[in-house]
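Appendix B. Worked example

We walk through a single record from start to finish. Start with the input: the chain for Putative cuticular protein analogous to peritrophins 3-e, Amblyomma triste, length 259.
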Amino acid sequence: GAPRHRRISIARVKADRITAPPEMLLFATLIFVGLLGLGRCQCTTNGFFPHETQCDSYYECRNGTVVQGFCPDGLVFNDEASYKHLRCDLPFDINCQNRPYMQPAQGVGNCPRRWGMYADEANCGKFYNCVDGKGFAFDCPEGLAFNDRRGVCDWPDLVERCDAEAYLGFQCPEPTAYELQDFVNPPYAHPRDCAKHFVCVSTYYGKRLPRLLSCDEGSVFNPSTKSCDDPVNVPGCENYYGAQENPFNKGQTLRRQGR
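Next comes the structure step. The output line below is what the pipeline stores for this chain.
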């Protein structure tokens, strides 16, 4: 038949119809015939409607005719935005709880499916944005990990597949009574970087896991006060910054260590 054209963006897809494998179309036809026989779908109104069990599939009703379509591999049918115009989106904000099934994956290389955002298997902080089977690698900001359930860079302790301690290279010590009295999440100095520090948060199962934070430019973490401070007040960190004006003391220059 004539080629079917579609316009595709990273976040969503608009199309008139998506071609599916013949065996899928046959299966869909049998399902829909059954539905028509039960009187559950009369196709009296033009528009796009969700499939009963498959999140990346939909029905198009046009002038009394029913056609099943499929979103591109990795995207799902947005039933809240697709009444008159078809819209396929990334699955992170679409409720597929009652439509849990997907078409067979057509993965390529680092892309488990042809479209979508996927975590790197070996690196919590790396992910791939897959565009029609081509994976573009991205890094999360330092200290964050890619959350493949939400499609965002997140705290490592909130990412199920990520070992926050191994990823950040820090294990939370047992807090002292003083720390628990004064801090909800006690902070600790980074062992190698004056401007960074860790806070340890309690998880729902009772374990404390680290999060990496940074002081504002021009300041460093002071282990004595457990707060960000002027470098001159922190032994060993006085010369952390390079030749730039210190925002704490105008006219004073700073030198960043190892930079």
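Two observations about the output. Residues 56 and 76 are 4 Å apart (CA to CA). The first helix runs from residue 22 to 38.
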